[in-house]
Amino acid sequence: MRITSKGQVTIPIEIREKAGLLPDTEVEFKITGKTVVLKKAGSPSKRSRDLINRMRRKATLKMTTDEILALTRG
């Protein structure tokens, strides 16, 4: 297997099937010494909570929901 210039690698179908890695599956990498382990990411609900927690209190504008919707629906 060879890594492309973009850092991509193709996972053989046999490995994807055994690991249940379907298209759009989120994965995580863990490095231990010189070994890299790829595994399915945690549950979507945990990832969603983590994302929301990172975004919390990041907004700098004070707008109502109606004002935001007006901008996006323009």
Characteristic terms for this protein:
74 residues, alpha+beta, two-stranded antiparallel sheet, 2 strands
Question: Topology of this protein?
Answer:
Elements: H1 13-19, E1 27-32, E2 35-40, H2 44-55, H3 65-73
Antiparallel strand pairs: 1-2
Question: Gist?
Answer:
The chain is of the alpha+beta class.
Tell me about this structure.
The chain has 74 residues and is an alpha+beta fold. The chain is built from 3 helices and 2 strands; from the N terminus they run αββαα. The longest helix is centred in the last third of the chain and has 12 residues, at 44-55. It is elongated and about 50 Å long.
Low-confidence stretches: none
Question: Based on helices, strands and strand pairing, what is the structural class?
Answer: alpha+beta
- How far the N terminus sits from the C terminus, by CA atoms, comes to 48 Å
Spatial order of the strands in the main sheet?
1-2
* Count, helices: 3
